[in-house]
Structures are given as structure tokens and as C-alpha cells.
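// run 5 | inverse folding | seed 20
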């Protein structure tokens, strides 16, 4: 079976979040099931640099108004296709925004062109798998081309939808009939994610709970009606993590590697976290955060609780960036609690590994979380997750309630509503559990034993693909 996967990023070539980890890991997870996955990415400078010598294998004279070429390569031994369109992708800054953080005004054209290219290539494959709004136009173009290639669209976060004014429709190279309620029209404008959701043969989310949640107004972000109408096409498959990248036993970013059998070696990593974040040395728990600093992630609630966290005897090491006000709030907290709170604004892959390998508990107070990967990394590294009970967080972390603790199956701490009171209660529970070393170690080992590799998820995707192709 040959599958074309289309996305805006894939680890290790380009990454802004968990989407890249999933797109990068999925081909290897599918390979044991007889699935060869070719990944189509935009020709960002970082991606073209990876390819080295460039030899186009296909050209478009006019791809939504711009010239483009297709380049073949490899990514971690798997087939890679790159859409080389310099007028769209050869830019300084990030994949979606310039160096100041302002979104590129023509993102609609950039990622519609990616979808158009994917639809042109899809007849060479057995199935097309698109990811998020940036890839979502691919199923839409297949639909309006009347192409007989089954398609899957995965929602990694329904909050990001690719919504634009109606005047861009003329630039999408679609028939007039596509600007309709069951097409690309969305509240009087154009919705790229909406177009894909209306067109794909199957819709997946990255956890079963999230697949249910987005059918409700509080999580569906305006698309709950469409999701409910197509509920027979919607399913949830939990993301996996790549043990070749995330394994405390052989992680080169850790001063001391370890397994569940020698957790005492984590102490060396804890000392390294203290040094990296200018924290006072101590045996009390270090809570870590590796996150975008946004409302969705509940970082405003955490900012309100950091003084109390320090008052309980906890310390905080935070790595992330996002809303300027939240960045400022955490920097101010660091100034108030020098030696107890450390903050690094930005993202550093190696440092994120060190935090998982040396932190005691990872805080994830998200208001909604389609799947989440950092809690999976925490489980694998014995960094106990403290999570809001939502989406993939609820599906992957077993709360340390009385029954779970007694049975020895608890792997973390869950809390309900994302409020200061609920988070403070969870922090107090965590402090009490950490004060009982035998119980805490049992939780760490139980989390490390859990299998969150791509093995099961790869099987489910392969089964989904075969079912669609057989129709």
C-alpha cells in the first residue's frame, strides 16, 4: 500500500509543535504493516537544505498563480517529497509567520497550493492522508476533481482552522459550486479545515476523548455541527512517541541515562536542571513546564498559582514562549522567587529532554488538549504528569485516586475544571504523593512500563486505510 501524507511540518526537518513529531514518526510506524508512506512538505529553506543537491521530478507552471517544482528525497529512510515554490516558501522566519511573529498574509495561498499539489500527486498513490488545516485542502481538491482516491484528514487541534475572507475564493482554483455550505464556505468566508472536514472519506483526531469532545460547542470551535453530522466518519487514535528519540535509557541529552530499574540516576539530571534554570539545590520536587504559553494551555491559571506552589515547597522550571503577557508574568514570578522559579523563553529540544529526565512532575493544565505529547514523554521518563482531565490527557494518564494507588496502577494526577482552586488542589496532592517515596517510585515505574510507542497506533491507522481502500 502506498500512502501520500501531506503536512506543513515533520520532525526532524521542521518543527513548531507536536504535529511535526506525529508526521515524522508515522511512516516508520506504518512500515511493518506493508504501508509505504511518502511525506509531502513545503520547500522551506530548512527542508531544502536537508535535501542537498536538488533535481526536480515534476514542475507546475502555474500552481495557484506561482511556479513550483517537486523534489524527491528521504527523511529517516522514508520517502520525502518537497514542494519547491520559492515565491511561497523561501522566506526568513517560521513556517507560518515572519520573524516578528506576524502571520504571512498569503498563508491561505501557500497551504492551498500544498493541498493542490497533493491532490495532483494523489492518483499515484492508494490513499491520501492530510494533517490539520494546512493540509486540509488536499481532500477538498480531490473531491472537486472527482478523483477516486480515498482520503483521511487528521485534526491535531481544531482551534486552528485556516479561516479567511470570502475574497480569497477566486484564488483557490475551485468551481463556483464549492463556495457552499457543504464545501469551503464558512460563516460567509472560506474555511480551509472546514473544506477538508466536509470532503475527507474519514476524519481522525489524536485521541478518542477528543473525538467525542469536538462534537460539543465548548470544544468544537464552531465546527461541532459538521463533526456531529459526519460522526460516522470520525474516530480517535492516540498519538505515539518515537522510542528512538524519546528513551531515557539512551538519550544523549541527559547527563545520566537510566531505566525504571535505576531511577536513582535521575538525581544527576535533577542537579543539571537546577543548574540550567538557576534553581537552588534541594530534594523537594521540581515541577516542569514545556509548553506554548497560551490560554488554551491553561498558563494563565498556572501563573496565578506559582506563588502558592513555591509556598508549598515546590520549585518550577519553565520552558516555552507565547503570549507576551504570560511571558512577562512568569518572568516576574522568577524575579519574585529567585532560586525557586526558573524560566527560559523560547524552545530548545535538548533542554526539553533534560527537563523530562530531571524534573519530578510535569504540569499540563490545558483547557483542551487533543492528545498531548509532553505527558507521554513524562510517563516514559518517570516525570509524573499532573494534567487537566480533558482529551488525550484523560485517555493516557491514570489518576492517583485511592483505588488506583491501592492497586498500584496510578501514573499521574488528574484534576477537573481548569481553575486556580482545582490546580492548587492537584499541586497539594502531588506534594503529598512526592513525600511518600515508595508510592512515588511506584507511580514512576508504572508510567515507564506503559506502551505509548507507535505500535498500536500504527496498526489502527493501517486498518483504517485498508478499510477505506476496500470500499
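// decoded
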Amino acid at each position: 500500500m502506498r500512502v501520500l501524507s501531506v503536512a506543513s511540518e515533520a520532525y526532524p526537518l521542521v518543527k513548531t509543535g507536536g504535529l511535526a513529531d506525529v508526521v515524522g514518526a508515522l511512516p516508520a510506524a506504518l512500515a511493518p504493516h506493508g504501508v509505504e508512506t511518502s511525506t509531502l512538505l513545503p520547500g522551506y529553506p530548512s527542508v531544502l537544505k536537508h535535501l542537498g543537491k536538488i533535481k526536480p521530478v515534476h514542475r507546475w507552471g502555474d500552481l495557484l498563480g506561482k511556479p513550483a517544482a517537486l523534489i524527491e528525497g528521504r527523511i529517516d529512510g522514508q520517502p520525502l517529497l518537497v514542494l519547491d515554490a520559492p515565491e511561497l516558501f523561501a522566506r526568513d522566519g517560521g513556517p507560518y509567520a515572519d520573524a516578528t511573529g506576524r502571520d504571512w498574509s498569503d498563508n491561505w495561498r501557500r497551504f492551498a497550493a500544498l493541498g493542490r499539489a497533493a491532490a495532483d500527486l494523489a492518483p499515484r498513490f492508494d490513499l491520501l492522508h492530510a494533517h490539520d488545516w494546512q493540509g486540509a485542502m488536499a481532500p477538498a481538491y480531490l473531491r472537486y476533481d472527482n478523483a477516486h482516491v480515498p482520503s483521511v484528514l487528521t485534526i491535531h487541534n481544531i482551534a486552528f482552522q485556516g479561516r479567511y475572507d470570502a475574497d480569497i475564493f477566486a484564488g483557490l482554483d475551485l468551481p463556483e459550486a464549492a463556495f457552499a455550505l457543504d464545501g469551503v464556505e464558512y460563516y460567509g468566508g472560506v474555511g480551509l479545515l472546514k473544506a477538508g472536514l466536509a470532503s475527507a472519506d474519514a476524519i481522525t483526531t489524536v485521541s478518542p476523548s477528543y473525538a467525542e469532545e469536538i462534537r460539543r460547542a465548548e470544544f468544537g470551535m464552531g465546527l461541532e455541527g459538521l463533526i456531529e453530522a459526519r460522526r460516522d466518519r470520525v474516530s480517535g487514535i492516540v498519538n505515539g512517541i518515537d522510542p528512538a528519540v524519546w528513551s531515557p535509557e539512551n538519550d544523549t541529552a541527559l547527563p545520566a541515562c537510566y531505566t525504571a530499574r535505576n531511577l536513582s540516576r535521575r538525581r544527576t539530571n535533577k542537579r543539571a536542571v537546577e543548574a540550567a534554570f538557576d534553581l537552588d539545590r534541594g530534594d523537594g520536587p521540581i515541577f516542569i513546564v514545556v509548553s506554548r504559553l497560551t490560554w488554551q494551555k491553561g498558563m494563565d491559571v498556572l501563573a496565578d498559582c506559582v506563588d502558592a506552589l513555591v509556598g508549598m515547597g515546590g520549585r518550577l522550571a519553565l520552558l516555552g514562549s507565547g503570549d507576551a503577557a504570560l511571558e512577562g508574568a512568569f518572568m516576574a514570578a522568577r524575579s519574585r522567587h529567585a532560586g525557586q522559579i526558573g524560566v527560559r523563553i523560547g524552545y530548545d529540544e535538548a533542554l526539553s529532554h533534560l527537563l523530562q529526565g530531571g524534573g519530578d512532575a510535569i504540569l499540563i493544565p490545558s483547557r483542551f488538549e487533543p492528545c498531548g505529547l509532553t505527558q507521554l514523554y513524562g510517563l516514559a521518563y518517570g516525570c509524573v504528569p499532573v494534567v487537566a482531565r480533558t482529551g488525550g490527557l484523560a485517555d493516557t494518564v491514570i489518576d492517583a485516586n485511592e483505588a488506583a494507588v491501592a492497586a498500584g496502577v496510578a501514573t499521574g494526577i488528574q484534576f477537573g475544571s481548569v481553575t486556580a482552586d482545582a490546580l492548587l488542589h492537584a499541586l497539594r496532592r502531588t506534594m503529598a504523593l512526592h513525600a511518600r517515596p515508595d508510592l512515588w517510585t511506584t507511580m514512576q515505574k508504572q508510567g515507564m512500563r506503559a506502551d505509548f510507542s507507535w505500535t498500536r497506533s500504527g496498526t489502527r491507522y493501517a486498518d483504517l486505510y485498508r478499510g477505506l481502500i476496500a470500499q
